[in-house]
Amino acid sequence: MGKLKSTVLLVDDSPLFLRQAKAMLEEKYDVAVATSGDRALIMLDKVMPSVILLDYEMPGMNGKETFEAIRRMPQFAFIPILFLTAVADAAHIKDVLKLRPDGYILKPVTKSELLKRVGEANGEIFWEN
């Protein structure tokens, strides 16, 4: 009998990025995807992720609004949320960090970096060689 995989909820409005990131993560995690903040909140009724990867820049409910909505829900408030964003200017980064997310990942991201950051947020221990 195999070990149960942790679930990662991946929230991004880019179908291409969702496919790429899911492919990077799925050998180690069960991956649920949502294409918007609204869909992410609906998805939380169906899955209990151990980590949420959240795009910051999305149409409609953006990453900030989605983050705040999740943090207001007591049953999900403890889940680590890592922001994913392609915007690297200092003011944007400062705005994201004000929310006190559990992490901040700049796109594009490599498979090894993504697995490492999700693993750390999930409480996994990594040994450096």
What does this structure look like?
- This protein is 36% helix and 19% strand.
- It has a 5-stranded parallel beta sheet with strand order 2-1-3-4-5, sandwiched between helices.
- The protein has a single domain, classed as Response regulator (Rossmann fold).
- It is globular and about 40 Å long.
- The model has no long low-confidence stretch (mean pLDDT 92).
- It has 5 helices and 5 strands.
- α2 packs parallel to α3.
- With 129 residues, the chain is an alpha/beta fold.
Query: Which term fits the overall shape?
Result: globular
Lateral arrangement of strands in the main beta sheet: 2-1-3-4-5
Instruction: Compute the number of structural domains.
Output: 1
Query: Strand tally, please?
Result: 5
SS element count, helices = 5
Give the helices and strands as they follow along the chain: EHEHEHEHEH
CATH class: Alpha Beta
Rg over CA atoms, rounded to whole Å, is 14 Å
Give a brief outline of the structure.
By secondary structure, the protein is α/β, with parallel strands linked by helices.
What are the key terms here?
129 residues; Rossmann fold; 19% strand; 5 helices; 5 strands
Could you give the topology of this structure?
Elements: E1 7-11, H1 15-25, E2 30-34, H2 37-43, E3 51-55, H3 63-71, E4 81-85, H4 90-98, E5 103-106, H5 111-121
Parallel strand pairs: 1-2, 1-3, 3-4, 4-5
Helix pairs in contact: 2-3
